[in-house]
Every structure is written in structure tokens, then in C-alpha cells.
Specification:
Layout: E1 6-8, H1 15-27, E2 35-43, E3 49-57, E4 62-68, E5 73-76, E6 80-85, E7 88-93, H2 95-111, E8 128-134, H3 145-148, E9 151-152, H4 165-170, H5 185-198, E10 208-209, E11 212-220, E12 225-231, E13 237-242, H6 251-267, E14 279-284, E15 289-293, E16 300-301, H7 302-309, H8 315-334, E17 337-338, E18 347-350, E19 358-361, E20 368-369, H9 386-391, H10 410-427, H11 438-445, H12 459-469, H13 480-494, E21 502-503, E22 514-516, E23 520-528, E24 532-539, E25 545-551, H14 557-567, E26 578-584, E27 587-592, E28 598-599, H15 600-605, H16 612-632, E29 644-648, E30 655-659, H17 694-710, E31 715-716, E32 730-731, H18 742-752, H19 764-774, H20 788-791, H21 808-816, H22 822-826, H23 830-834, H24 841-857, H25 876-881, H26 894-903, H27 915-922, H28 926-941, H29 944-959, E33 963-965, H30 966-977, H31 984-1003, E34 1011-1013, E35 1024-1026, H32 1029-1046, H33 1054-1062, H34 1075-1085, E36 1089-1091, E37 1097-1099, H35 1104-1115, E38 1120-1121, H36 1123-1133, H37 1145-1153, E39 1157-1160, E40 1168-1171, H38 1198-1216, E41 1220-1224, H39 1229-1239, ...
Parallel strand pairs: 1-2, 4-8, 8-9, 21-22, 41-44, 41-47, 42-43, 42-48, 43-44
Antiparallel strand pairs: 2-3, 3-4, 5-6, 6-7, 10-11, 11-12, 12-13, 13-15, 14-15, 16-18, 17-20, 18-19, 22-23, 23-24, 24-25, 25-27, 26-27, 28-29, 29-30, 31-32, 33-35, 34-35, 36-37, 38-40, 39-40, 45-46
Length: 1403
């Protein structure tokens, strides 16, 4: 092709790119309507810069070509590619999604041009398609089907069947590009003119931000683009993020865009951590506001690093990467900064090929900086667009609730991402194949289970990942700092059992058990800050524990020395004690006392209520420390709950606050941004001159005290605008103060937080006096006994009217009105009390005024309504409602019956019934069926929701390789859209019906993207939805091959199955499939084959004997199994095989299968099957003689005696059916459950799941949107939303009680947290009374994770009406069976043949 048909807008600077373009130019046709443009850029409608290698106008459409000239071979999927060149592998993003976006943007730009508007010729709608040209690759790349059809090589130009780039362009219309005969010579001239009007230009022109020249595009988002940039004078490399002004059409919009960029800059303000990429500057540029970041051209993204190097890393190296990421996020969380989009794509790896790769978190554009130490649960948002989940690989690392805009729970969303990334780093596998698969995987294991993906997983490592990724937000670690506590245990567990002393020279790689200079041994790694590493260490000589702080590097050495100089002379009980300064690996370090096991921030976040006495004392401690520092002329500069430890006095056990981290003490006074928001005085910049002062120190102390009292800092104005830009004074949470102290505390904080520092307290001593004065009412006599201010704090929703303090007459009136509880009282409109008839004014006033005051004092008790807000994407329930016409009740027409049967909605309907089957079943003619369907299609065409399902199905089918079964699509629709129905059959029925309606709708439009294929043969078990008949035929062939394999004896190995399916002939024009997709499709289509839990292909309905023989390996090396456990294990392995029979038939079957087991009615582990090859301790019945080592009888230590007493109480409760509350340390809760069920088999019932199920059912009955109810759980207890939630919980509680009281076998009740949270503790009293009673459950036990010994309590609520005989604490000696080792306890084992069942209720 010659000029002018070939238009080189500019010459490429790269030889390999010029060579690829020359190849195109030399082989393209040189006649109408062909045209080509090379090496240009355009600005799209959003202001983004888009570079184009080549744009070719063919008779079918415009084709945008992205040329890739890297030699070697390529493999990849829809997200990333791996290039292998001369033995070296390089990971890159799949270039097709970006090329596709460019094509759509260019089409949008061209549509706006006058040349195509129809004013000067025919109106033309430009059609632009993407194509990837691999000019240096000679071997066909191994890519996913969706990408492969858009990737071409050089091919063999001139040959009729040329598969290369030229052949593809010549046959563009035949291959599905554009539209046949869409472009003629006239249209070509118009398109050429439109490109000129669009302003295409040479790349790089005008691309400059200040002194930086923009280079290649690094990445982009909805409203930003990242470029590599070079400083024109110094040559320094930077990454520059631009927010294009083209998105803003008004001055106000431009201002909002600038504020967006400034906000991203502000959230990273003041951060200094090696693991967080810093923003260096904010610039205004012609293209838009821009941010300048650090940039390392050699850094790799973590996802690319994992694909390249992960398999070569040892476990210790992988754990180090997890720790680096965790410490960076812990530092951010300490600064109230939450990423909210953490994924491997947002993490850079520096020195990726070195011995110690270093991680750095980037991409904070959706981050938030929250205020306060509290964290709560977020509502789980539904999938917004299935296309987003298919194209963005980072979404599989995001928490299910991460799409919610709220900041509440952002820390736990980050924790989920930490756990998901840790899962990938440790197992070598991503958390899920796609975001649609993730929810099911999370529900199955209550989080991600490492043991399912790798061998040899330790208990703490498993629990670290599972706890971080549990779908229940409140069950996760509260922030990254708690995640690091799990990691520390996992590292300790993974260390050698008897390690040789290891002396480390680099603190960055130090781990528990390592030895440091000066006789110090690392006990635990505490974290990494902006200037130092922190460790808990032990002095070998004395056994004392200290905190060691070591400078990160030489650049931070002066800060550590300065902090040591500050701490050395300080002597105060509430300031961390300096022990010594030292040197570790040539770096300065500080040894100081340990400031307690947890910080004030952790206490606040933990939800543990502080008594008024502790609040007063903690405030005195903090202000006393500030006063001491003030008198000594020492500045702390970062007073906040995270820098305050809570320690216990050795002698008295009393708590004391300890202020630590003086790293900012020597910061320049002119630096008014040093510190942490919201504790940093926002008005420092308004001082003249702007300088830090002691007023700012006292301001930080006041913010900390306010947060300690109510859980959140105070706010200014709307809580969003910068305080210094508005005139409001601080908003104090007065209504959350104790009524007796309210006035004094309000006066204290109003003065301490005044905008004008001259109006604040003059010094810390005056502030301390005011604090003590605010608490002085505690020292005076309490108010009258009947005062509502005294009564209100101890009431709950179920409290009786008598407890409210009404007189006899008032109680009688309320009784007549049917008002017996606080909940009922506060639900009555006060106007109703005003107009009571037959009641004197005095009584009316008493009732009205006391109820009004109670509502003011306890807003959390006031009931209200929760309204449904269903403005989002249509669920399957909403879609199902649109399938049949809406008619009045009783108006049941024949066409409705036809449609219900055809869609499979009726219970008796045949799956995917044909028109003939429908006519026969309904008793009508085929013509009537056709008419009903035609009317339905007309109505469905008007439904935007059903048309959206068509597009979603098209995308899902394309991703599945062009074909999928109806049930496969139904499962994915349920994952993306959801259903509130609990019955799995009903959920599936609705999904299938929706798919059939969408298929019918698709068949009535042109072009048709997919069609269903249902065979009438009896053996055909699956209905296919396919993009072509060839793809459907290929699926049928795979299914028949699987049927044939399943019939073989013995069963084929997984490797042979893969080989056999791989040689199934692929019809011409059918899509090739990956091995995994082949297997899944074959199983889905097969009439008789199934897949075991271990990936074995077997026949559905396989005989019980065959299943038992194959499963014998899973029963090996187990001493004893109950009948239920043995049957469950075989069933778990082969879920679609014939069930094993019960005894005595099971005994004969085991004998026939060759199982070496015997049934015992009494054994050491209870009734069950016992192995013949594993002897019992103390038993002489085994056929295999073993020389056992016998231990002497256990010494009767106090711990052993206490464990025996616990055993006796449990045995008695099991025999008599007595209710028993069992408390245990939270970290041992899972061990306790396992041991209890092993020794005393019983059903497991999760009260939390039952409660959520009952609440959801009640919400559905009241037409309340369940996501709305979940959102209310995150609200403050005194908010209207939370009160409404309490009302919903109270209405759901009887269902829970009914289900528990209906149990007819012993049960262990677990997870009781919601019972206390929703004020339903009286339910437990009902359970305790019913346990073992006539008509009640035979035995109910309640397992309560509780940190401290003492009477059982749940979240601070004491269990009601419970005696010492009804509770005990499970100690470590009991869990370790210390009372049963060697000698035997007086208590005997309880051997109840009750299989362990976990009652699962979908939530």
C-alpha cells in the first residue's frame, strides 16, 4: 500500500516497530476502499491519551492493530501473558483489553465528527475492532479462546488460507469483524475526513507536566492515566498520574476533578514507610491535575513476580513477603489509612531478582482515611457487572463487601485482601478462578483453606488465612496489626522444633528465635514503622522482656539516636522507660520497657467497655504524662491511641497507660504536617507563623480522650470538609457521655478543642484539673433511686414496665393498653398517651414524660422500621417475577399455565420441555403454545432486566469457550445476581427459568449470539447453550467420551482421562478448550460420569462396594470411626455413589471390601469401628503386637486435679442432660470444639447462622431488603437503623428458640455472639431450663470463647440464671487430656453414637 492510502502520521522511534509496520504496508491491498494510518495518538472523550500503532480501514470496518514485536513464545489467559525469549520469562498484561478500550474510544470520537454526521453524505456509524499482531513470534501462542481469535502472526501473505495478519484483514467480514460490505469508496473518504477532524497527531506532542516529559503509558483507570516520565533537566524517572480535564465540562467540574487529585495526595500525606509508595508532588498541567510518584523502572508487579519466581521460593521466603505486606498495611492502618483495593496488581516488587525482594504498596486512588479506632461490618454488595468480574483479575483478592462505598469496615476489607494474597503466595494458586467462583469457595470453608491447596499446612498458617478471608466481616482480624499476630504464630509454628541459635546481621530478615548482638533473642516481630523495625526481645541472661527498636537504615539512624536522647532522661510511670541504647548490625537501636500487651486503640476497637472509673484514671494518666513532658520541655508530636499501651502493674494488677513512640519529638517546628490525622491540630497552618506548639499536643490528647470515651473522635461541620475551611466548632458526642458526667465532659471538650488556641486550656495542669472536675459527680451521692437517669442505663428492650420506675397507677394504665415491656412502651406514639381517656392529668404526664426521657437517654431502644431499597441490579427473584404476566389473584389463564410449564416454573414440569411436551401436559394444541410464547417474547423484549441477562449470558458463554450447560450458567447467574430463597431447588428453578426466557428472547433477534441445544434421547442429561452448533457438537462428544471412560473397570486415572478427552475430535469452526474446561464440560454434559472430591472420574450411582474399596485408603491409619463418620467419609469422597448401608449390612460390606476393622460396642473412643492394626493404649486385643512405651501414672498436680474436676462435671452433664456453658480462651475455641465432639459426640448448632437465617426470613416476610438490614448492623447502637435491626431480631428470635428446643439429640451450641449483640440473652435461660427436661432437647451445651476466667459472659453480657453446676472453664490441661494420660480419671468416657453434624443455614 502506498501513500496517500498509507498515512504515516509519524515515524516510530523503534526499529522493531518500524519493521512490523513495513510488513503491513508492503502486503496490504492498494485499492479502494482500503486505507491505513500508522503511529499516532488521539485524545478520547474522557481526555485520555491513546496511542495507536496502526489503524486499517477494510471493506468490513476499521481495525485497530496493536503491534508486539518481542521474539520468542507466548502463553497466557484473559488477564496476563508470559513471554519466553532465550530462556528468560517476562510477564505482561494481556494487551487485548486495552486495545479493545482504545477501539471503542476511537469509534466514539469518530461518531462525533461532522464528516460522519450525514450532513455531507450518508450517515455512517464507525465500527472499530481490535487486533493484536505478534510480528516476531513464529509459533502459535497458547492463549485462552477469547483472546486467541484476536491475535495473529505474520502468516503467509498471498495464500488463500493465510491465517496471519494480512489474511485476517482480507477476510475480516468472514471472521466476524464488523459488518459485511459496510465500507465502500465513498464511506472510506468520509472516514478519512473524520480522522482528520478528530485531530489525530504524532505521539508525545504536548505531553508534558511541568519539567517532566511523559513517556509510555503504564496503566489507567476510570478517571486517571499513569505515565512514566523523565525530568527534562536531571533525567530522574518518575511515575505521573493525570486526571484528564476533558471529563470536566464546567469550571465546577474541573474544580471537583482537582479536588479528587488533591484528595489522593492528602490521603498519602505524612506517610513514610519503605513498603508504601510515596507521592512526591501535586502539579497543575494542561492535561489536568497530576500527581508525581516515586518510580522504579525495574520493579515488577507482584502478580508478575509470582508467575515468574514464586515456585522457586522457600516457605520462609514466602512468609517474609507476607510479613512485608502485612507490616506496610499495619503502618497504614495505624495512620487510619485503608487501601480498599489491595491486590497483587497494586503491589510492586523491588529487587525482584535479588536475594531479598522488597514489596511496596501502590495505587491508593480508592483509599480512605477514616477517623477513630472503631471498626464495624459492611453490607455485602452484589455483583454490579459480570463483565467487570471477567476482565479484572484483581477482584478475586477483594473482600465480598469491598464494592460498598462506606469506609466502615475498610480495615477488615484490607485484611481480607492480605489473606487472599497470602493464600496465593503460600499455595502458588490464586484464591479462585474468577470472582464468581469466590463466594462459593468462601462459604464452603468459611474462608480460604490452605490445606486444600498445599500439603503440610500448620494449624496457625491455616487459621491465619481462613480467619482473614472469612466472609463474615466481624469474624476477621480487625486490622492488619491483628493479622500480624496470626502471622507471628504461624512463623513460630513453621520454625524448626529445636533450632540452632541463628545470629542475624540484617534486622529486616530477623525472625522469632533469632539471636542478636548483646544477648538478645527475638520473641516476636512487632512491626515496621517509618524509621525503625520493632521487636519483642528477651535478655538471655535475665529472661526479661523488652522492646527493641532498630533503625531501618543509615538514612534513619539520626532519628533513632534523637529518640534515644529524648527518652533517656524521662522518668514517669505513664511514659515508656528507656533501658539502654545499643547497636544492632551497625545500626543504632533503643531498648525500652514493654508498654503492655495491647494498645488503647486495640482496646477501643475490641469493643471492651471501659468503666467510668477506668476512663477517669486513663485520662489522668495521659494528661499527667503530657503535663510532665510540658514541664520538661519535651514534645511528643504524635499522641494517639495507637501510641498508648495498656500495661498492668506487677504488684497490684491495676491498669496503667504508657505513652511510647517519641520518633517525631525532634521534627522541625515548622513542619506542621508531622503527625496523624485526626489527632493533628488542623489549625496549625493558620498560626502566624505556621509552627507546631504545645496547644497542638494538648489538642491531640483531647481527641484521644474523646475517642476513648465514645469510640470515635469529634468532627467539624459535615465531617468531610477540612476543619480549617469552615467556621464551625467541634461537634462533641455529648449524647454518648454518661448522663451524670455529661455537663462537665461537654465543658471540658468544648474548651479543649476550640479553633482559637488562645481560648483552650493554658497548660496541661489546668487541663488535668478540668478532667478531674468533670468526673467529680462520681464522688458525690447518686441521684434518687427512682431517677430515670439512673434506671435507663440498665434497661434493655425486654425489660418490664415495672423496671422503668412507674408508679402503681401508671403501671395499671399501661397494662390495660397491653404495654408490658420497654420495647412496646417506646413504640407507642406519645400523642396516644396525651389523649388517654379516663386517666387523670398527673398519670398521663407521668407516663408521657418518663417515656420521652427514656427515649432521649437510650435511643438504641427506640423501635423503628427498615425500608426496602432495591435500586440495584435485578436479582433472580426479581427476574423470575417478570417471567409471567402480573394478574389479580384467581385470574389463572391457560397461556400462563403454558408458560409456567415451558419455563419449568411448575413443580411437575419437565426440564426444558419441548412445545409438544407442553401441549400434552397442559392439554392444549401446539399452536396455542406457540401463541403463548410469542406473546411472552413481546412482553420480555420490553424488560431491560431480561435483556441485560442476554448480554450477561453471551459473555459467560464466550468465556466458557463458546458452550456451556444450562446448569453451569444457572450456577454463575446465582453467583452474580443472587437470590434470597434458601431452598436450593427453588433457587435453581428460578435461574433455569430465567435462562430459558433469555434464550427464547435471543432467538427472536438478529444476529443471534447463542441458542439452546436439547437432545430428545433419554440418555441426554444436559441442555446446552452454545454460540454455534459446532461448539455444541464438541461438548456432546466430550460427554460421550466421559460416559465411556466412566464405564471402564478399573476406573481410569485422572491423567488418562485428560489424555482421552484431549484426543476427542474438535469439529471444524469449534473453539479449542483448555484441559480444565474440557474436563468440567465433559462432566456437565455426561449422562453417567461424575467427578470425585479427589478428581477421579467415576460412574454416577456407583455401587457402594466399589466406592468403599476405592475409599479404603482414606480410612487407613485411623484408630476408630463411628458408623456415621465412616459413611460420611465415603460419601464425601464419592458424593454421587450409592450410599453405604447401615449395620449390620455395613459390617458384611466392609468384610467383603477387605477393610481391616472390627465393630466394638465399647472402646476407648466410644462405639464404632476399630482398626485391627492399631492397638489401643492398655488394650491387649490387637492382632498386631506392638512394643509400646508406657508412662507412669500422671502426677496429681493442681492442674491435673482441676482438669479431673472439669471432666467429672462434663460427664455428669452428659449423663443427666444438664445444661452446660463451657468457656474457653478464644485461641483454643476450635480445639475445644474438636475435643468435645470427639469425646462426647453431638450435633453442632451455630446460633449465629440460625439467627441470621431467621432474621432474613422475617425480613423477607416484612419486605425488608436484606442488604439494608446488614448495613444497619454496622450503625451505631443509638442510631435509628440499629434500633430497627433490634426489632427485627426480636421478631426472629422465636424461630431460633423453636428450632433449638425441637432438637432430639444432644447438641453443642456455638457462636452465640449475635444473641448478646441483639439483647436476646433471655433465650439462653429458656435453653438452660429445657435441656434434659421432658419434651425438651436431651442435652444442650454452649461453647463460649472468653478471654478471662469467671462467670460465663458473651460480649460483656452475663448469662442469666445459671448456677455453678451449669458452667465450667475448659483449661489447657483438660484440652491436652492431662487428666487422662498415664493414670485414668475417675470419670468414664461417654460413648453416644451420635454423628457429628454441623447445622448449616445459608446466610
Amino acid at each position: 500500500m502506498k501513500s496517500p492510502r498509507w498515512s504515516a502520521v509519524s515515524q516510530s522511534a523503534f526499529e522493531w516497530e518500524r519493521e512490523a509496520l513495513d510488513f503491513l504496508r508492503d502486503n496490504l491491498p492498494d485499492h479502494e476502499p482500503w486505507r491505513a494510518w500508522s503511529n499516532f495518538e488521539f485524545i478520547d472523550d474522557e481526555g485520555r491519551v491513546n496511542e495507536v500503532d496502526a489503524l486499517v480501514l477494510t471493506p468490513a470496518c476499521l481495525i485497530l492493530i496493536e503491534a508486539k514485536s518481542r521474539p520468542g513464545s507466548v502463553r497466557g489467559d484473559a488477564y496476563s501473558w508470559t513471554w519466553r525469549t532465550e530462556g528468560r520469562e517476562v510477564a505482561t498484561d494481556n494487551p487485548l483489553p486495552l486495545a479493545n478500550r482504545k477501539a471503542k474510544r476511537l469509534a466514539s470520537v469518530l461518531r462525533r465528527q461532522e464528516a460522519l454526521s450525514g450532513r455531507h453524505g450518508a450517515r455512517i456509524t464507525p465500527w472499530v475492532e481490535p487486533l493484536i499482531f505478534l510480528s516476531k513470534v513464529s509459533q502459535r501462542p497458547a492463549l485462552d479462546p477469547g483472546t486467541a481469535k484476536r491475535v495473529v502472526l505474520r502468516g503467509e501473505p498471498g495464500k488463500p488460507d493465510d491465517p496471519g495478519v494480512i489474511g485476517t484483514l482480507l477476510r475480516a467480514d468472514e471472521l466476524g469483524f464488523g459488518r459485511r460490505a459496510a465500507v465502500d469508496s465513498t464511506a472510506a473518504r468520509q472516514i478519512t475526513k473524520a480522522l482528520e477532524q478528530a485531530g489525530v497527531r504524532p505521539p508525545g506532542r504536548g505531553r508534558r507536566v511541568g519539567d517532566y516529559e511523559l513517556e509510555q503509558l503504564l496503566g489507567e483507570g476510570d478517571n486517571w492515566q499513569d505515565f512514566a516520565a523523565r525530568h527534562a533537566a536531571t533525567g530522574v524517572k518518575r511515575r505521573i498520574r493525570i486526571y484528564p480535564y476533558a471529563r470536566a465540562t464546567t469550571p465546577e467540574a474541573r474544580d471537583r476533578l482537582a479536588r479528587t487529585a488533591q484528595r489522593e495526595s492528602r490521603v498519602l500525606e505524612g506517610l513514610e514507610h519503605q513498603g508504601i509508595q510515596r507521592v512526591l508532588d501535586y502539579r497543575e498541567a494542561e492535561l489536568g491535575p497530576a500527581l508525581v510518584f516515586e518510580y522504579d523502572p525495574d520493579a515488577l508487579r507482584l502478580d508478575r513476580f509470582m508467575s515468574r519466581r514464586l515456585e522457586k521460593l522457600a516457605l520462609a521466603e514466602r512468609l517474609d513477603l507476607v510479613r512485608q505486606l502485612g507490616e506496610a498495611m499495619a503502618y497504614a492502618h495505624g495512620k487510619r489509612l485503608y487501601h480498599r483495593g489491595l491486590a497483587p496488581q497494586s503491589v510492586l516488587v523491588r529487587d525482584a531478582d535479588g536475594a531479598s525482594p522488597r514489596l511496596q504498596v501502590t495505587n491508593w486512588q480508592v483509599a480512605s482515611r477514616a477517623e477513630g479506632s472503631t471498626a464495624g461490618a459492611m453490607m455485602t454488595a452484589g455483583t454490579l457487572h459480570v463483565e467487570d468480574h471477567i476482565t479484572d483479575p484483581s477482584k478475586i483478592y477483594l473482600a465480598p463487601e469491598a464494592a460498598t462505598a462506606a469506609d466502615v469496615g475498610a480495615a477488615q476489607a484490607d485484611v481480607f485482601s492480605l489473606g487472599a494474597i497470602a493464600y496465593h503466595l503460600l499455595s502458588g494458586r490464586p484464591p479462585a478462578g474468577s470472582p464468581l467462583e469466590l463466594p462459593a469457595k468462601l462459604r464452603e470453608g468459611n474462608g480460604l483453606l490452605l490445606s486444600g491447596a498445599m500439603n503440610g499446612v500448620g494449624r496457625w498458617l491455616e487459621e491465619m488465612v481462613r480467619a482473614a478471608t472469612t466472609p463474615v466481616v466481624r469474624d476477621r482480624p480487625r486490622d492488619a496489626r491483628e493479622f500480624l499476630e496470626y502471622l507471628a504464630e504461624a512463623e513460630r509454628e513453621a520454625a524448626p522444633q529445636e533450632p540452632m541459635p541463628v545470629f542475624v546481621t540484617d534486622p529486616a530478615t530477623a525472625a522469632p528465635g533469632d539471636h542478636l548482638e548483646g544477648g538478645l533473642v527475638i520473641k516476636r516481630r512487632l512491626g515496621q514503622g517509618g524509621s525503625a523495625y520493632a521487636f519483642l526481645v528477651e535478655q538471655e541472661a535475665t529472661g526479661e522482656e523488652f522492646v527493641l527498636k532498630v533503625a531501618l537504615d543509615d538514612a534513619h539512624a539520626d532519628r533513632i539516636r534523637a529518640e534515644a536522647d529524648v527518652l533517656r532522661p524521662l522518668r514517669h510511670p505513664n511514659i515508656v522507660r528507656f533501658v539502654a541504647d545499643t547497636t544492632i548490625a551497625g545500626r543504632p537501636a533503643i531498648l525500652m520497657e514493654r508498654a503492655g500487651d495491647r494498645t488503647l486503640a486495640q482496646w477501643i476497637r475490641g469493643g471492651d467497655p471501659l468503666s467510668l472509673d477506668l476512663m477517669r484514671r486513663f485520662g489522668e494518666h495521659l494528661l499527667s504524662a503530657v503535663e510532665y513532658l510540658e514541664q520538661d520541655g519535651v514534645a511528643h508530636r504524635d499522641v494517639k491511641p495507637d501510641n498508648i499501651g495498656i500495661a498492668k502493674a506487677v504488684a497490684t494488677g491495676a491498669y496503667r497507660l504508657v505513652l511510647f513512640d517519641f520518633s517525631l519529638s525532634r521534627a522541625p517546628l515548622e513542619n506542621v504536617t508531622a503527625g496523624t490525622r485526626p489527632y493533628l491540630d488542623p489549625f496549625l497552618v493558620d498560626r502566624r507563623p505556621p509552627r507546631w506548639d504545645l496547644h497542638a499536643e494538648r489538642y491531640a490528647a483531647a481527641i484521644t480522650l474523646h475517642e476513648m470515651l465514645v469510640g470515635t473522635p469529634p468532627t467539624f461541620g459535615d465531617g468531610l470538609t477540612e476543619a480549617r475551611f469552615i467556621e464551625d466548632e467541634a461537634t462533641i458526642a455529648v449524647d454518648r457521655f454518661d448522663p451524670a458526667l455529661r455537663d462537665g465532659l461537654e465543658a471540658f471538650f468544648r474548651r479543649a478543642l476550640r479553633r482559637d488556641p488562645a481560648e483552650r486550656f493554658g497548660n496541661a495542669e489546668e487541663m488535668l484539673r478540668a478532667w478531674r472536675s468533670a468526673f467529680s459527680p462520681m464522688d458525690r451521692a447518686a441521684t434518687a433511686a427512682d431517677s430515670i437517669e439512673v434506671i435507663a442505663p440498665r434497661l434493655d428492650r425486654t425489660s418490664s414496665i415495672a423496671e422503668v420506675g412507674y408508679g402503681v397507677e401508671a403501671r395499671a394504665v399501661l397494662d390495660q393498653m397491653g404495654i408490658h415491656t420497654v420495647h412496646q412502651l417506646l413504640g407507642v406514639p406519645r400523642l396516644q398517651f396525651r389523649y388517654l381517656t379516663g386517666v387523670g392529668d398527673r398519670i398521663r404526664k407521668e407516663i408521657r414524660e418518663r417515656a420521652k426521657r427514656l427515649a432521649e437517654l437510650r435511643r438504641d431502644l427506640v423501635p423503628g422500621g427498615i425500608t426496602e431499597d432495591d435500586g440495584g441490579r435485578a436479582t433472580l427473584d426479581r427476574l423470575a417475577e417478570q417471567l409471567l404476566p402480573r394478574r389479580p389473584a384467581g385470574d389463572d389463564r391457560p397461556e400462563d399455565r403454558i408458560l409456567a410449564y415451558y419455563l419449568g416454573i411448575d413443580d411437575d414440569a419437565v426440564f426444558w420441555a419441548s412445545a409438544g411436551q407442553v401441549a400434552a401436559a397442559v392439554g392444549t394444541s401446539r399452536g396455542a403454545v406457540a401463541e403463548a410464547l410469542e406473546a411472552a417474547r413481546t412482553r420480555w423484549h420490553k424488560s431491560a432486566d431480561l435483556n441485560a441477562v442476554r448480554g450477561e449470558l453471551s459473555t459467560l458463554i464466550e468465556r466458557a469457550g463458546g458452550v456451556a450447560t444450562v446448569d453451569e450458567l444457572a450456577v454463575q447467574l446465582l453467583g452474580s445476581r443472587g437470590s434470597v430463597r434458601e431452598d436450593d431447588k427453588e433457587r435453581m428453578r428460578r435461574a433455569r427459568a430465567t435462562i430459558r426466557a433469555a434464550v427464547e428472547l435471543e432467538a427472536s433477534v438478529t444476529p443471534t449470539r447463542f441458542i439452546s441445544y436439547a437432545e430428545v434421547k433419554p440418555e441426554a442429561s444436559a441442555v446446552l447453550v452454545s454460540a454455534s452448533p459446532e461448539n455444541a457438537e464438541y461438548a456432546r462428544r466430550l460427554g460421550r467420551a466421559a460416559d465411556k471412560l466412566a464405564a471402564e473397570t478399573p476406573l481410569p486415572s485422572p491423567g488418562r482421562v485428560d489424555d482421552e478427552l484431549g484426543v476427542v475430535p474438535v469439529p471444524e469452526r469449534a473453539s479449542a478448550l483448555t484441559a480444565e474446561r474440557r474436563l468440567r464440560l465433559a462432566m456437565a454434559v455426561s449422562a453417567s460420569a461424575a467427578l470425585s472430591a479427589r478428581g477421579e472420574l467415576y460412574p454416577r450411582g456407583m455401587k457402594a462396594l466399589g466406592a468403599l474399596k476405592l475409599a479404603l485408603g482414606t480410612l487407613a491409619n485411623i484408630r476408630a470411626l463411628s458408623q456415621g463418620e465412616l459413611r460420611a467419609r465415603v460419601r464425601g469422597r464419592f458424593p454421587e455413589a450409592e450410599d453405604l448401608p447401615l449395620r449390620p449390612d455395613l459390617d458384611a460390606l466392609l468384610e467383603e471390601a477387605g477393610a481391616e476393622v472390627d465393630w466394638r460396642d465399647a472402646g476407648q473412643d466410644g462405639v464404632g469401628y476399630y482398626s485391627r492394626s492399631i492397638a489401643d493404649s492398655g488394650s491387649g486385643t490387637a492382632t498386631l503386637i506392638r512394643h509400646a512405651t508406657f508412662a507412669p501414672a500422671q502426677e496429681a498436680t493442681p492442674d491435673v486435679l482441676a482438669a479431673r474436676a472439669i471432666e467429672d462435671k462434663i460427664v455428669f452433664a452428659a449423663e443427666k442432660g444438664v445444661f452446660l456453658a463451657l468457656t474457653v480462651e478464644p485461641r483454643r475455641a476450635r480445639d475445644a470444639e474438636t475435643e468435645l465432639l470427639r469425646r462426647f459426640p453431638r450435633e453442632v448448632v451455630s446460633l449465629e447462622r440460625l439467627m441470621l437465617h431467621a432474621m432474613r426470613t422475617r425480613a423477607e416476610e416484612r419486605r425488608i431488603a436484606w442488604p439494608k438490614a446488614l448495613t444497619a448492623d454496622a450503625a451505631a447502637r443509638d442510631s435509628t437503623d440499629f434500633k430497627n435491626l433490634l426489632r427485627l431480631a426480636a421478631e426472629a428470635a422465636p424461630r431460633v428458640a423453636k428450632e433449638v428446643l425441637a432438637l432430639r439429640q444432644p447438641a453443642l451450641l456455638t457462636r452465640p455472639g449475635l444473641i448478646a449483640r441483639y439483647d436476646l440473652m433471655t433465650m439462653l435461660d429458656e435453653f438452660s431450663q429445657a435441656s434434659g427436661a421432658s419434651g425438651g432437647p436431651p442435652s444442650l451445651w454452649l461453647l463460649i470463647p472468653q478471654a478471662t476466667p469467671g462467670r460465663p459472659e458473651i460480649d460483656g453480657a452475663i448469662l442469666p440464671v445459671i448456677s455453678a453446676a451449669n458452667w465450667t472453664r475448659l483449661t489447657d490441661p483438660w484440652l491436652a487430656n492431662a487428666h487422662r494420660a498415664g493414670g485414668r480419671s475417675a470419670a468414664r468416657d461417654i460413648t453416644l453414637d451420635v454423628p457429628r453434624i454441623t447445622r448449616y443455614v445459608p446466610s
